[in-house]
Amino acid sequence: MKKWLLFGLVLYSGQLLAFPRANPVPGGIAIIPVADATTTVTAPVVQYEGKRVTVAQQDGAWLALVGIPLDAQAGEHHLQAAGSLIPFEVQPKQYRTQRIRINDNNKVEPDDESSQRIVQELAVQKGIKSRYSPQAATLDFIRPAPGADTGRFGMRRIFNGQQRNPHSGMDIAAATGTPVKATAAGRVLHTGDFFFSGNVVYVDHGSGVISMYAHLSQITVKPGDNLQQGDIVGAVGSTGRATGPHLHWSVYLNGEAVDPALFL
Ligand SMILES: [Zn+2]
């Protein structure tokens, strides 16, 4: 291929990069046209399983970006938009299994006190990741830290021989203290210390697009802070349930964890 042609393609795909890749599988994203943006001025309200869905404009169309739950069944699913149902197809996907050894077995088989804490925290985290703010979505993402991918999204996980929830993010190996960057512009929604996630920062990128950074050794932002893409939110660590220092990075659409790699 001629160099200039390749360059042109790179420029063109550069414009498309501000949108995630569609991959309509459990844990993936379905991108569904819902209205003509040349005649419909404001983003239409779209829901999936009762939750508000991210809608963004591209090439004269309003597109719904649907986060498909990891436990979704393959087959026909529906969006609700302006009183009508829009069908879309979810394809099957099998994720691989990962076996993980955790030294602190209380992180695998929590005692009663820890179990109570976990139940409360799950409710808090569910509320945070399901937040929908009306600002237009920012979909131009960068990798939040350099390093090798050591845990892919969606892997079924066996901790110390016990089956646990599938992996809800991407793990990036990096040394403790490595700066963690905001993947896109947004507003800090929440910071906290959770049993499994350790020190964590949630960032709202508008219209139900939320990112999360976990196991941090340090948090350097506070709720309400406005961030530009690349602003530092904290540092890599191994707090919570972690085998060693790494960044766990999650992205949520309509409250569902989706594969962050689809945004890169
Ligand atoms: Zn992880």
From TrEMBL:
The entry's keywords: Signal
GO terms assigned for molecular function: metalloendopeptidase activity
Domain of life: Bacteria
Coiled coil: none
M23ase beta-sheet core domain segment(s): 166-260
Any Pfam family the entry gives: Peptidase_M23_N
Protein name: Peptidoglycan DD-metalloendopeptidase family protein
Organism, scientific name: Thiothrix unzii
